[in-house]
């Protein structure tokens, strides 16, 4: 009986995260807003339900959001480099900052 409850909660959490990802993706594409605007509050609400201690919830939510930003930014930078869209003279000027 307890195993069924855990499975049901995990399935519900997976469905929630899948729906949240779809909504964030659409809003980010249409409006140009960052996903953290929706992801961080959702994780702050969802992580305690997963048994995460309240002292760690905000840290984990922000770290998860920042990790997703690093991955998407790195992918975008690589693609812009491949397409030749980077002005390295400008990059050299920004280096001291």
Structure characterization notes:
The structure is a single chain. The protein is mainly α and 97 residues long. The protein has one domain (2-94). The protein is built from four helices and no strands. The protein is elongated and about 55 Å long. It starts with a helix and ends with a helix. The model has no long low-confidence stretch (mean pLDDT 84).
Offer a few descriptive terms.
97 residues, mainly alpha, single chain
Write down the secondary-structure element order: HHHH
Alpha-carbon Rg, integer:
18 Å
Task: Give the helix tally.
Answer: 4
**Total tally of structural domains:** 1
| Main beta-sheet strand count, sense and barrel state | none
Provide mean pLDDT, rounded: 84
Structural class: mainly alpha
Q: Tell me the number of strands.
A: 0
Query: What is the helical fraction, as a range of percent?
Result: over 70%
User: What gross morphology would you assign?
Assistant: elongated
Low-confidence stretches: none
Quote the distance from N terminus to C terminus: 59 Å
Strand content: under 5%
């Amino acid at each position: 009986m307890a195993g069924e409850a855990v499975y049901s909660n995990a399935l519900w959490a997976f469905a929630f995260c899948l729906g949240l990802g779809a909504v964030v993706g659409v809003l980010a594409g249409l409006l140009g807003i960052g996903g953290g605007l929706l992801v961080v509050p959702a994780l702050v609400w969802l992580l305690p339900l997963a048994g995460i201690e309240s002292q760690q919830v905000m840290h984990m939510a922000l770290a998860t959001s920042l990790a997703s930003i690093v991955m998407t930014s790195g992918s975008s930078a690589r693609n812009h480099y491949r397409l030749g869209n980077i002005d390295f003279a400008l990059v050299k000027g920004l280096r001291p900052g």
